[in-house]
């Protein structure tokens, strides 16, 4: 299986860009991450996400939602709020969140 970016979605849609630097304490993080992915996929407006971490430790996760209401539903989800609280207490040295409405989107895939 080759690595591919998510396909371009039909604009407008919303993206949430979460950029973070983690602490050395990973206790409970993998299980919480798996649960967050499970929960967000139940949101009918969730389109998908992409995530990467540099060798130096900077992580970037971009989540795509159909509209601001779908993103607000995710933000208000109680288990997500609990995970955010644990993240600030344990897993993150720092993070930044950017939210934007996408007005243009296109992609390219090499054939062959």
UniProtKB/TrEMBL annotation:
Alphabetized Pfam families for the sequence: ABM
Designated name of the protein: Antibiotic biosynthesis monooxygenase
Keywords for the protein's UniProt record, in alphabetical order: Monooxygenase, Oxidoreductase
Organism encoding this protein: Streptomyces bambusae
GO molecular function, one term: monooxygenase activity
Keyword Oxidoreductase included in the entry's annotation: yes
Ranges where the ABM domain occurs: 14-85
Iron listed as a keyword: no
């Amino acid at each position: 299986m080759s690595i591919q970016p998510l396909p371009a979605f039909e604009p407008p849609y919303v993206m949430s860009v979460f950029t973070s630097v983690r602490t050395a304490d990973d206790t409970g993080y993998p299980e919480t991450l798996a649960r967050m992915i499970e929960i967000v996929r139940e949101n009918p407006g969730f389109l998908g996400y992409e995530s990467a971490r540099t060798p130096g430790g900077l992580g970037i996760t971009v989540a795509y939602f159909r509209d601001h209401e779908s993103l607000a539903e995710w933000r208000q989800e109680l288990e997500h709020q609990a995970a955010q609280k644990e993240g600030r207490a344990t897993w993150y040295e720092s993070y930044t969140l950017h939210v934007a409405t996408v007005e243009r989107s296109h992609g390219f895939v090499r054939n062959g």
